[in-house]
Amino acid sequence: MSAVFKPDETFRGDFSYRNSAQAIRRFPLPFPEDEYMYSVNIEPHVTGPEGAVTEFAFDVDEHYVAECRERALVLAAEPLRYQALPHMMSAQWDCLELIMESLARDYPAHFSLDKQGNRWHWVNRPLAIDQHFTFGDADSLPREPLDYITRQAQGDFVVLDQREGDLWAEAGMVTTQADWSLDFDVGMTFNEWHGPVPLAHDLGVFDRALKYLLNLRLGQPVRRLNWTMTIHPRLDTSPENYPSWGPDRASVTRENAGDFAHLRVELQGLWRLPRSNAVLFGIRCYLISVRELATVPKWARRVHRVLKGLHPALVDYKGLTRYRDAVVEWLAPYDDGSPTSAGTAPD
Amino acid sequence: MNEAQTIEVEVRAIEQITPLIKHFTLAPAGGGSMPAFSGGSHIVVVMRGDARIHRNPYSLLSSPQDLSTYEIGVRRMEESRGGSHFMHDRVHVGDRLQIAHPVNLFALDKIARKHVLIAGGIGITPFMAQLEDLRAGSVPYELHYSVRAPEHAAFLPRLLERERANVRMYYDSAAQLIDFDGLLSNQPLGTHVYVCGPAGLIERVIKTARDCGWPDSHIHWEQFSAPPVGDAFDVFLARARVSVHVQPDQSLMESIEAAGVEVPYLCRGGVCGFCQTRVLELDGELIHNDHYLSDADKAKGTSIMPCVSRARCKSLVLDL
Questions:
Q1: Region B63-83: what's the mean pLDDT?
Q2: Beta carbon pairs, A and B, within 8 Å
């Protein structure tokens, strides 16, 4: 999609972030049905169709420039949002190659990559970056490879080392997260960092997902959607900064819920990395206000029903306890009880 | 995996390097580079024989830093069902073959403080690529390479040229045996051991390491089983609603594929567990030849690895 960047929008302070009509139409609604429960909802990351958030390996949309600036602000205040353990250097280069090659191939108007053996030339026009470097030589870049390239990408990234029949979160760039911390999780195994998730352990979801991911193949990435809600279009809802965003949840009323409450959807992608045999876990965050969402009648009905019937343990885990009812009341006038069509596409 | 995801390669060179082993160099048929990979990876080569399609796994032995070609070593198996004979007798320079993307089921542990590699015969191949990764790093390593006799020491010139200080050779013909106890009882904490070769060698290394107190997480091995021959049997695929006859020299997976039903797989050697299939009904016994299921799971008889295992039965129904 040929997005027009909105470089001045903000994810803090005056929260000027908005979705264009085009961005609303392509929003990745995570509810194929009128009710929601955990499942191993992993599918091949097959690219397409045109205009969808899955059109390419990594989606670059109208918020790209603003999100990169937001990331830089978070990192300036809290450098430990980026971390990489020493044995992850080959995986860092794998990530840099995957992201650069994908962006240059999929968005040639914005990015280009020229390779002469190990001498690479990277151009990022939206961010006005022009970089010559030597692939494999960390000293030839201004930052570590993963740090360097993920400052130029939307969404969070965690790199998982594979050993002992498990996946270990041992490098990452995490500034747009839904209340979890890389600094806390770094070095953990798959089941350890998923420890706080309710219900899913008993459903066997993580054991099956881990087994699947250990066999993830080169060139055959997979994806899934996950979701929660956030008050205001705030990308950085980290545990470290809980005091600055947690109290917002007490400010939601049935009158302001449409503008304050946002559906927060994560498009999670997983790629096997070639040289390191590690796995790249991308967590791309999409935000949409309930008011924007309700411009699509089918989505208003469906989200109303999903939230109304959500399992209490999920209401609690997703942090919706204080304002779920307000959002349901705000959406109620949009739900006339008529059926919703199958799938997530707008009517 | 399906055929659409294979890579077409051209056979660039073939060299008979020992009385039993041929060394193949494969280049991308369309030009360009092969996909990047990590040491320890294997590819599956698709061989279109007259009567059937063979798909055999072979470890990549070329350098992960040089992606202009892939190299594999193929040992002629005496009891071959056709795959290794096809590679030895039917494949010529200039021929085209299909291969699957590399998969690594035998990766080096990245937080090891030292690596001890033990190879027997054709088991040297995954280590050839791993040594390239190790040489570029700073962690100490050593290779112990055991063969029948000097003329069977595949890739020795390359090893001596690149790794002379880290390689120790053992020749059965000279009664030189690896001192497993001495080797494994005296390694620094944080050492990982890797073994690839004949079943007896692998069992010996695993047992010795365990007896010396090594944790299982530090013991790594890879052994691709060729699907053994056996009695013919019949199987019914419940979801596809197809009956399949398995010939004595044909694997269960090959028979199912020949009937037009796809089975997901990665290694085709009984290692990875990817093709694990539920057994819905059985009148007879399963003959498990894989290294994936535990003995307890094998005894239960509720699942099977069709890549290497078969059955001696009156009837068998699979969840496929």
A1: 89
A2: 50
